Amino acid sequence: MRKEFLPFSTPTIEDAEINEVVDSLKSGWITTGPKVKRFEEDFKNYVGSKFAIPLSSATAGLHLTLLAMGIKEGDEIITTPMTFASTLSIPILCGAKPVLVDIEPGTLNIDVTKIREKITPKTKAIIPVHFAGQSCDMDPIFELAKEFNLTVIEDAAHAAGTEYKGIRVGSHDSISIFSFHPNKNMTTGEGGMVCTADESLAEEVSLLKFHGMNREAWKRFAASGTPNYDIVTPGFKYNMMDIQAAIGIHQLPKLDAFIDRRKEIADFYNREFAGITELALPQYAPYEQRHAWHLYTPLVRIEKLTIDRDGFMNELKKHNIGSGLHYKAIHHHAWYRENLPQEAGSLPNADYASDRILSLPLFPKMTDEDAADVVSAVKEVISRCRR
Ligand SMILES: *Cc1c(COP(=O)(O)O)cnc(C)c1O
Fold it and tell me: Is 184 a catalytic residue?
């Protein structure tokens, strides 16, 4: 057995990131400033969006987006149950009601054929989540949005570098929200980015991110600026710092190589696990795409085993292999069971995945030996716990 514990994810931080952070610390300017501006430009160019607004998190990005759209009490927002807390909690905190649509069993992305039946006169937006870094089927979503005049907000937290039919996520005619949390495909420590082609939405989000001030703070203190400012609306404190952007500036040029390495490991897992009937492996969608492989999430067929998913994760831990849980379906969580109950059996694919899913280690710094250790641990647990 391997000696050291292998976590399911860990970021790749090298000298360039470290030196850039130190440079910020020594420069006397550590909060929002020139490095945030540079990261904004670099990221905007990479994804191909017209506007990009750097923020303290993706959660902040979703909050400001919904406020800028004027989402209010009684509005409905369609999304997937297979996602992180903030995709639903932010609409709820804005007074809206999330409406859940089941997932496809293979990709675990929202089932686009089931969206139409959930649209009502109260529906304002659809939030597709590009699960694990694989793009949702966007064409049917955009067609529905056009037909019913809905806004599409792509939860792109897993999808930096993802492409759909040759188009990079972030450059669609929509709003895309990226996360730079340490587990994501690239990091700024904590951080997020809202990308859009909608100029008035971009302006509103920019205004709300920093106290509703009509001028960037760092320009006020620069030699060329004036210290005066005006508050034109009550705003939040969701700005990204230069210390964060310093990391992002050096992560972004490595993103494509990170994704290539992630794909190599995912391909290796797919080859090694092919034919193991106790696992349902992640499937590629049939359309042209680039999967960013943020997560590798097989489903453990617990009906064929003597242990449940949590038991499986525990057995892996005994082999010094970490794993993650992305996700227990949102409607299985305590608050949602109480406050957003779903009719039993109405989300069968999400229910099935929720009890069986786990995230195996997948990150660019992993060695081939690490990946081989994961495979042998998974195979050992399955052969020992087979029914
Ligand atoms: C990580 C994540 C978020 C939130 O991102 P933060 O930057 O941590 O706020 C939202 N949605 C999904 C699907 C995520 O994985």
Answer: yes
**Which residues have C-beta atoms less than 6 Å from ligand 1?**
57-59, 83-84, 86-87, 129, 155, 157-158, 179, 181, 192
For residue 69, CA distances in Å to 154, 178, 199, 204 come to 14, 18, 12, 9
Distance 179 CA to ligand 1 centre (A): 6
| Closest-CA residue to 189 (of 39, 66, 89) | 39
**Which atom in ligand 1 lies closest to the alpha carbon of residue 83?**
13
One-letter amino acid of 6 = L
255-385: in CATH 3.90.1150.10: yes
Q: Which pLDDT tens digits describe the chain residue by residue (387 residues)?
A: 899 999 999 999 999 999 999 999 999 999 999 999 999 999 999 999 999 999 999 999 999 999 999 999 999 999 999 999 999 999 999 999 999 999 999 999 999 999 999 999 999 999 999 999 999 999 999 999 999 999 999 999 999 999 999 999 999 999 999 999 999 999 999 999 999 999 999 999 999 999 998 766 556 666 666 777 889 899 999 999 999 999 999 999 999 999 999 999 999 999 999 999 999 999 999 999 999 999 999 999 999 999 999 999 999 999 999 999 999 999 999 999 999 999 999 999 999 999 999 999 999 999 999 999 999 999 999 999 999
Q: Which residues have a Cβ under 8 Å from the Cβ of 229 and sit 6 or more positions away?
A: 213, 214, 215, 217, 220
Task: Please state the pTM of the whole predicted model.
Answer: 0.97
Architecture of domain 15-253: 3-Layer(aba) Sandwich (3.40)
Residue 37, SS3 per DSSP: helix
Count of positions (residues) in the chain:
387
CA of 304 to the centre of ligand 1 (A): 33
Domain range list for the chain: 15-253, 255-385
| Pocket test residue of 63, 65, 93, 155 for ligand 1, highest count of atoms within 8 A of CB | 155
